[in-house]
Amino acid sequence: MTCLPPRTEKKLGLVIDLDTCVGCQACVTACKEWNTGGHMAPLTDIDPYGGHVDGVWFNRVHSYEHTTELGGRTVNFPRSCLHCEQPACVTVCPTGASYKRASDGIVLVDEDKCIGCKLCSWACPYGAREFDTDVGVMKKCTLCVDRIYNDNLAEEDRVPACVAACPTSARHFGDLGDPASAISQLVEERGGVALMPELGYKPTNRYLPPRARSERAAKVNAPALEPIKAEGGFLGWIDRMLSN
Amino acid sequence: MHPAFSVVFFTTATGAGYGLLALLGLLGGFGAIPADFWLGLIGMSLALGLIAAGLLSSTGHLGRPERAWRAFSQWRSSWLSREGVASVATFIPACLFGIGWVFLGKSGGWATVAGLMAAAGAVVTVCTTGMIYASLKPIAQWHSRYTLPAYLIFAAMTGSVLANALLQAFKLGSTAMLIWALLATLVGWGWKLATWRHNDHLKIPTTANTATGLAGGTVRSIEWPHTEENYLLKEMGFRIARKHSAKLRRVTQALAFAVPAVLLVTVFFVPWRLGAIASVLAAIAQLTGMLVERWLFFAEATHTVTLYYGRE
Questions:
Q1: What is the mean pLDDT of chain B?
Q2: Is residue A77 in a domain?
Q3: How far is B48 from chain A (nearest CA, A)?
Q4: Backbone φ, ψ for residue B62 (5° rounding)
Q5: Among all residues of chain A, which has the CA nearest to that of B233?
Q6: Is B79 at the interface with chain A, CB within 8 A?
Q7: Rounded to a whole number, what is the distance in Å from the CA of B228 to chain A's nearest CA?
Q8: Is residue A82 part of a domain?
Q9: Nearest beta carbon to residue A124 from set B74, B84, B138
C-alpha cells in the first residue's frame, strides 16, 4: 500500500551533527559494507575497478564551504534518506513496492514488487534513492532495519551501521517522535533543522548546524622562520664550503 | 532531467493518439463524420496504434518490465498507477466504438455512448499523464499550473491536426475541422511560449541553503562524494547548454507550430489533392516538432538534488 499511515507509533531517524562531522567517509563505507549483504542487497557496483565506476550507495558525504559575514568554514554534509513523514517517493509508487511502516516510520522498498520505473527517485528532493541498473530495481537506506531489531547483535550494536562507525559521534539514532528521547533532546538543545522544509515532505532526520565560532581557541603566534645565521667554528666552515 | 527517448516518445505518441481517439469518438459518435469503413479503420488503427506503441515504449523505461502489471494496483495514491488503469480502461469503450462505428457502420445508440466514453477516457488518461509530472515538487518547471493544461492542449492539438489530415486524405475535410486544427495549433503555440516565459523567470525558493540547512550566506560545493557521475547525476543532473536550448526552442516552434499553421492555412486556398498533402505534412511536422518539445520538457527541467552538487 502506497497510501501513507495517518500516524506512526515511532519516528525512527538520524540526527547528524554538522559541527563534528569530519568528512572521513567511515559512515559511507560502513553503510555500503553492511547493506551490500543486508535487506536491500546487493548494492551493485558497475565497473568497480575500471575508469567509469558507478554503483549504489545509501549515504554520500558532500563538502561545502559556508560563507557568512562571520567568515567561511568547511562543512561536511552526509546525505541519506530522511524517512519523511510525507514521503512522495511512497505515494507516487505505482506498484506498492515503496511503503512507510506504521510501526516505526521507516521508508522501505520491496525489491520483489519494484518495476524500476524510477518515479520515486524523481519525487525525492533529497536524492536518497539510487537505481540499481544491474538488478533493475530502486534501492534506498533501510535505516539498517536488519540491525536495529537484530537479536543476534549485542544491544549496543543495534544501531544503523553508519551510526556505529562514526568516529566523532556525529551521527545519532533514535525516536524523533518521542520528545523525551535523548535524540529529541539533542535536537531541541542544538536547534536541529529539517532539510528543504518548504517542500512539505516533513523529513524525520534532523541536522545540527555547526556551533557558533568560539573565541576560546588558542591564538598561537608562532615566530616567523628566519634564515640561519652564519655560524663560526666547524659548522660555519661546512656552511661556507657548501654555500660556495 | 534525463530525456529518456522511451518516455519522450510515450508521452508524445499517446497524447496524439488520445487526442485523435477523443475527436473520432465525439465526431463519429454523433455522426458529424460519416461511418466510412476505410476512414474509420485507418483512423481508429492510427489512434489505438499510437496509444499502444506509446504504452509499449513506456515499458522500455522500466528496470523490470515483466512486472509492469503491478502498476495497476496503487491507483489510490499514484498518478502513474491511475494512468495505467485509465489507459487500459479506455481501450474497452474505444474498441466497442471501433467495432460499432467501423465494422457495423453505426453512429447512434450504443456506438455513440461508447464513442463518448472513449473520448472521456482519453481526456482522463491525458490528465493522469500530466499529473504525473505536475505533482513532482522537486522539479519546479513541472510542478506548475502550466503542466496539466499543456498535456491536454497538446493532445487536443496533435489529435486535431491528425484528424484533419485523415479527413482531408479521404476527401471528407471540412472548414470547421480545418479551423479547429488551426486554432488548436495556435493555442498550443501560445501556451508553450507562456510556459517558457514562466519557467525562464522562475523564482525557486529551494536553495543550497535550505537543502543543507545552513542558514545565511552562501553555500558552495567544494567536493562531491564521488569522482564519477552516479545515478543521481545521470538521471536528475542532465543539463542542456543554453545555446542548444534556444536553438531547440526555435526548432520546436517551427516544426510543431509555425509550419503546421502555414500548411493548414494553405489548405483553404488549394485544390483537394494539394490540400490533403499539406494536411498530412502538417501532421508529420507537428508530431516531429512535439518530440523535440517533449525532449526539451525533460532536458530543461531541473531537480532539487542538483543543489547538493553545486548546480544552480
A1: 95
A2: yes
A3: 23
A4: -85, 150
A5: A127
A6: yes
A7: 6
A8: yes
A9: B138
